[in-house]
């Protein structure tokens, strides 16, 4: 995905999926046209085999109104959104699905079902979210984490957030990522706690507590992605100016960064949640078809990487 500007990074990603079989996916509460059509379109693209979980009558009504053909798709009836989330999680726990996909319910409802003790989907790793962003003006795909799940992560949580993102990058067959720990400045300042965390995280990587990536931080956003900004500020680092994973200090900063890129730079933001037993496809009602397809493609490739127990090679 280190494609040149304008060459269609998501399209390259989706193209790579064609050599793999679609993955059984529990779609929780697809009771709006966008959520339902997204699952169906991903199925037609050969990315997933959706199992539609929700009020069967409502799903059928939405399909009829939106002229969506549900022939051949399995529907598992559930009374309401909470029940849909719980049932979708159960399908994963029992091995009937290898991916979980958010429909038209609130993210909090889905994640509550995932972390529930009886769901059996938790691991020893902190659950976190990654935006896989295609920014038209930037040569590389940017991974931004965490902008959707962890509000104010502490140091151990940030360690897991970084490891999840590194594992995603490697699991997609992209090699060893350059990871920038973002803050407002590029020097350690006791008055800015995120700079202290950044320094600690880099030392944790030196000691093998974070593996698989090259880390540097604190770095400001400009000198994380711009070689010229890094040069002007005299930062000598294999990460500065070339970062592929951007680790934000908290959810507010990450959310604002991702939305700025989306609305000012016309970037697309595919979303995936990691750290649970299976990848979770987290789409938004505002997502376009291209972004929904990319989210499913990322999750599908991760599922196949887990099956193979080794990174997928392009």
What does this protein look like?
By secondary structure, the protein is of the alpha/beta class. The chain has eleven helices and eleven strands. It has helices spanning 9-16, 33-44, 56-65, 81-93, 107-115, 155-171, 193-206, 221-225, 227-232, 251-264, 289-308, and strands at residues 23-28, 48-54, 74-77, 99-102, 128-134, 142-145, 178-182, 214-219, 245-247, 268-274, 280-281. Helix 2 crosses helix 11. The radius of gyration is 19 Å and the shape is globular. The termini are close together.
The CATH topology of the domain at 123-275 corresponds to Isopropylmalate Dehydrogenase
Roughly how many Å apart are the termini? 10 Å
**Please, how many helices?**
11
> Could you report the average pLDDT, rounded to the nearest whole number?
92
From the spread of the alpha carbons, the general shape counts as: globular
What is the fourth-level CATH superfamily of the domain at 123-275? Isopropylmalate Dehydrogenase
- What class do helices, strands and sheet pairing give? alpha/beta
**CATH architecture type of the domain at 123-275:** 3-Layer(aba) Sandwich
Helix content: 40-55%
Main beta sheet: 11 strands, mixed
Per DSSP E runs of 2 or more residues, the count of β-strands stands at 11
Low-confidence stretches: 1-7, 310-314
